[in-house]
Amino acid sequence: xxxxxxxxxxxxxxxxxxxxxxxxxxxxxxxxxxxxxxxxxxxxxxxxxxxxxxxxxxxxxxxxxxxxxxxxxxxxxxxxxxxxxxxxxxxxxxxxxxxxxxxxxxxxxxxxxxxxxxxxxxxxxxxxxxxxxxxxxxxxxxxxxxxxxxxxxxxxxxxxxxxxxxxxxxxxxxxxxxxxxxxxxxxxxxxxxxxxxxxxxxxxxxxxxxxxxxxxxxxxxxxxxxxxxxxxxxxxxxxxxxxxxxxxxxxxxxxxxxxxxxxxxxxxxxxxxxxxxxxxxxxxxxxxxxxxxxxxxxxxxxxxxxxxxxxxxxxxxxxxxxxxxxxxxxxxxxxxxxxxxxxxxxxxxxxxx
Amino acid sequence: xxxxxxxxxxxxxxxxxxxxxxxxxxxxxxxxxxxxxxxxxxxxxxxxxxxxxxxxxxxxxxxxxxxxxxxxxxxxxxxxxxxxxxxxxxxxxxxxxxxxxxxxxxxxxxxxxxxxxxxxxxxxxxxxxxxxxxxxxxxxxxxxxxxxxxxxxxxxxxxxxx
Lengths: 353, 162
Fold this sequence. Notes:
The complex is a heterodimer.
Chain A: E1 10-18, E2 25-30, E3 42-47, E4 52-57, E5 64-70, E6 78-83, E7 89-94, E8 99-105, E9 108-115, E10 122-127, E11 133-138, E12 143-149, E13 153-160, E14 167-172, E15 179-183, E16 188-193, E17 199-205, E18 216-221, E19 227-232, E20 237-241, H1 244-248, E21 257-262, E22 270-275, E23 281-285, E24 290-296, E25 305-312, E26 320-325, E27 333-338, E28 343-350
Antiparallel strand pairs in A: 1-28, 2-3, 3-4, 4-5, 6-7, 7-8, 8-9, 10-11, 11-12, 12-13, 14-15, 15-16, 16-17, 18-19, 19-20, 20-21, 22-23, 23-24, 24-25, 26-27, 27-28
Chain B: H1 38-45, E1 68-71, E2 78-84, H2 94-108, E3 113-119, H3 127-134, H4 137-143, H5 147-157
Parallel strand pairs in B: 2-3
Antiparallel strand pairs in B: 1-2
C-alpha cells in the first residue's frame, strides 16, 4: 500500500467512547473471530479496577455496548488480555500473579482455568498461532511457556530465565513458534525450541545492537512476519527485520537486525505500538496522543525509512496505554484505551479536499 | 547512637515563609483555565513528613520551591518536573520519598498534569535506578496495591493535607 500516493490528508475520526471501567484501562484485544459478515466485532478490555469487560457492537444500531463484566476472579489489577486465535478463549494476566483463562459458555464468560506460578505481577500473555502454546511474563523476570492440553488444562513446559529485570510484554511470532519478550532491562529477547524440546534464548537485542536505551514496553509484527516494531521509554520506535525464509526452514541462527529508528516524534514514554495489515504503525504514548507512521518511499539507499502520517493530540484525556487495529473486514478501524478509564473506537479516514 | 535510622542526625532547616494565597476551592475545577504554578505544587508537598524523622521534607531541605520546574514546551500537555534531594547518598528511603511525592501530587493535581520525579543529580548512589522506578507508572501502580506501602505513604502524607 503506497500512502505517499494517496495525496489527501488523513484524519482520525472518533466513532465512539466506551465508558464503564472505574480505573485506568491498561489493555484491550479485538476478538479475531469477529468483525465478519456473521459476527459483530467484540473487544475485551482490562483495568486497574480488577475487572475485564467484553464489548460488542450491535448489528442493528452499530453502537457498542458492554456485554459482560468479568469480576470477582482477579484480586488485583488486570494488566493484559488476549483472545486465542480461534476466538474461543480469553486469557487475562493480573498483578495478583495469576493468569486466568475464560470461555464463553452460551453468552456467559466462565473462568475455566487459573495458571499459577509466577512470583509476582504477571504483565502479559500471548497465544501462539496454532493455539498449542501460551506464554506469560512477569516482574519476577521470567517468561513461562505453557502447553495447552485437552479439557482446558495447561501444563508448564518451560520457565525461561535470562532477563535481568521486569518483563513487560511477550509476543509469539505470527506464524512460527518463536517467542519474543521485552523488558525493563532495555532488551528484547528471542526464544526458540531446539531439537530436544528445550527452549533457549537465541538472541538478545541490547543497546550494543542498536537497541533501546530504556524500558521496552511493546512489540508488534508486520503482516508478513519478517519485520517487527518495538516501542520504548527512550522515546523511540525501532523497526527490525529478519530473513523469514531462513526462519521457516528451521534455522535458529537467523538474527533480527536493526532496520530503522524513529526518533524525535515522541517526547514522553511510548507504551504501545501496533502494525496494521496494510503497514500502518500506530503508537500510543504518555502525552495522550496517538501517532501513525508509514514506510516512506523517499529513502532508497539504505532501505526503507518511515515517516509520520498523522498525529492525533489529546486522543484521550490521559496517557494512552494501548492501541490495537481491528482484525475485521473494515480497514483502518482502531481501538485505544487510556488512564482516563475509557476505550475509544476510531477510524483513520482520508479527508476529502 | 540510635540504631536502624539511615540518617540519625539530619540537619533541620527553617521553613520558608508562606505567601498568602487567595482562598481556593477545595475541589479545583478539573478544566479550570488557570495554570498551576511551582509554588502551588510546592505547597502540596512541603509538609510531607520524612519517613524516618518527625520533620517535613521542606524542613530537611529534601524538597524546595526551586526544585519544581514547569515544562511548558508543549501546548497540549502540561508537565512538572520535581527534583528532590535525599539527606544522605545511600538513603534507601529515597524511593519511599519519591513515592510519597508522586502519590500526593496524583491526589492533588488535576489529572491532565504529568509529573516527572527524580533525585537531584549527584546526590544518590543509585540515582538512575531510583529515577527509573519512580517514573515507571506500571511499577508505581503495582507498588500502590501493597497495603503496607500505602500505609507508610499515607502516614507521611497526613500532615500535608492541612
